[in-house]
TrEMBL record:
The lineage of its organism: Bacteria, Bacteria division WOR-3. Residues 237-380 form the Thiolase C-terminal domain. Residues 4-218 form the Thiolase N-terminal domain. It comes from candidate division WOR-3 bacterium. Gene3D superfamilies: 3.40.47.10. This is Thiolase domain-containing protein. Pfam families: Thiolase_C_1, Thiolase_N. GO terms for molecular function: acyltransferase activity, transferring groups other than amino-acyl groups.
Amino acid sequence: MREVAIIGCGMIRFGELWKKSLRTMFVEAALKAIDDAGVDRIDALYVGCMTSGLFVEQEHLGALLADYLGLAPIPAIRLESACASGGVALRQGFLDIGSGNSEVVLVGGVEKMTDTDRVTDGLASAADQEYEVFHGVTFPGLYAMIARLHMEHYGTKREDLALVAVKNHKHGTMNPHAHFQREITVDQVLASSLVADPLRLLDCSPVSDGAACVVLSSLEWAKAHGKTPVKIIASAMATDTLALHQRKEITTLGSVVESGRKAYAMAGVGPDQIDFAEVHDCFTIAEIVVSEDLGFFKKGEGGKAVREGLTGLDGKIPINPSGGLKAKGHPVGATGVAQAVEAYLQLTGRAEKRQIKDARIGLIQNMGGSGASSVVHILEVV
Ligand code: COA
């Protein structure tokens, strides 16, 4: 495999973007990334998107977006792995360049979620239709079950979940691209509407529109052309059962453990060497579980870690400096790529007020559904 690097990034502010269509959002983010990378060639396009067919009745995104970017006839492919669609698009770009097939690739993610009245149904299509959705379970419901069991097994407190939201909203105030840029308090989380007990509105990632892009090239090409590369030192993916009841236990996400294990082995680093992480906090409990399953904390101690401030910007392992899905927003297909945007900004010292001091190695983790797929990338300053 050749060495692969990110050489530029671009995204639009996530939110309820009533005046922007799916293609407009994508083109805006893509042009920013191409401009940031300063490239005049793109050999292939990979775009992550989960629901364009369901929500805006538009399939065939690869060709459509290549056309609207003026990039046709390059090969262009849309990838789908539910909320991990952006992560798998990034992995596909990595493999394409690593194999020597392409030299400069545009990887993007996009989702238009607010132009539909069936967002909860559409998202639930990523759960097991026969064993879960048919019986009325939605994603807040599935994560609520994980939260309940985590609280019962490990003594995680309701307030610990709230503190994840409070921290990520605080980080969001420092990110001009975040959907929500306002602080919230534990009391506000605990008083927000109940969605699926014990999860409340402020424990949930929002329904957002948005797009994010990165440009990748081989490290050799980046150096030869005077770019600012951040090396991708690991790319790993793993899967699990869609249905929660088929897992041995639900407070550990097997795909996260496995994708993390493979990524650490590929990068030759362990959790202690990671300077910051962007993880998939679609619900507050998800950040706690993932922080344990990636080895940042012992099983059961993720809640305590948040309580002790270990995951804040100045903590032992800052988690979700961008504001995470909770505050930055979660236009599902764009999420995994937006994590790469944040890692690139952090590792090139451009994260402004939320800059993590001396950050050299960052980990990004993106997952689909209740963890049936998980993608982990590790990035390092060159
Ligand atoms: N976090 C913070 N604020 C939120 C929010 C969230 N997740 N969701 C909505 N809001 C705010 C809105 O901005 C609005 O504020 P305003 O009154 O100041 O304008 C207010 O809360 C009500 O918004 P509304 O759109 O009516 O909320 P809703 O009840 O329709 O939706 C949820 C709230 C939690 C149900 C929805 O955000 C949701 O389904 N989230 C989960 C998405 C999901 O499952 N993603 C996939 C994960 S696997």
